[in-house]
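Q: Give me a protein?
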Amino acid sequence: MKRTGFRLLSNLLSKPKMVFSPRPLSSIRVPDLNLKLGINFCPNKINSMHFSTEPPQEEEQAAKEPESPVLVEKMEGLHIMTIGINRPDKRNCVNTETAEHLKMAFHEFETDENMYCAVLHGLGGNFCAGYDLEELSELEEDLANKIAEILMDQGPMGPTKMQISKPVIAAVNGFCVAGGLELAIMCDLRVVEDNCKLGFLNRRFGVPLIDGGTVRLPELIGLSKAMDLILTG
C-alpha cells in the first residue's frame, strides 16, 4: 500500500500540466437549461426606437354649445316640471334671452297635459336678483324703445303676465329681490330658506315695478306691509 501510494504521488508531481493547467473558456460547455421567458433577445439585432421631433397634433375639440339660461326637467312619474334659472354668475338676473326662455318654459308647462305642477327655482345658490341692469346700461340710445317693446309684448321678467291654470311653486334661496321677488309672488306657493334675502330694491336704482308686484303683493300681505316693502326698498 505504501509503495502504491508513493507511485501515484510521484506520477502526479511528474505531470503538473494535467492538474494545474487552466482550461480555455472555449472548451467549457454550459448545459442548455431551455429557459423560455417569452423574450427573444438577439444582441446582433437591436430595434432602435425613433422619436419624432414634430410637436403632437392637438385634437380639435368640438365647440361646446352654451348652456341655456333656463333649464327644464320633467319628472314624468311625478307629473312635475322643474324650471331653473341658469345664470349663476349673474345671481340669476334675467335678461331678454332669459325672459323669453322662461316664457316658453311656462307655455310648455301649461300645454303639457302630463304635467300637473311646476317648481320654479334658481341654480347656483340664488333664486333671482331681478332684471339684468347691465343689459339696460348698454342701450343708452334705444332704452325707451326697448322698454316699450318689452311692455307691449310681456313683462320684463318673462312669464309674469301669463294666465297659468296649474299650480306653480317657487323654491326660494339666496337673493330674491326686485324682479326676482315678483317672479316668486307670481307663483301660488313659496318655499323659502331661512337665510334668504327678500326685498324690492327698485327705488334704489329708479326702476319701477312693472311685473305685477304692486298688484300681487298687497293681495298677499296687505296694503300697509306691501307699501312698506316697496317704498323703503
Observations:
- The first strand starts at residue 70 and ends at 75.
- Residues 96-111 form the longest helix (16 residues).
- The CA atoms of residues 100 and 158 lie 6 Å apart.
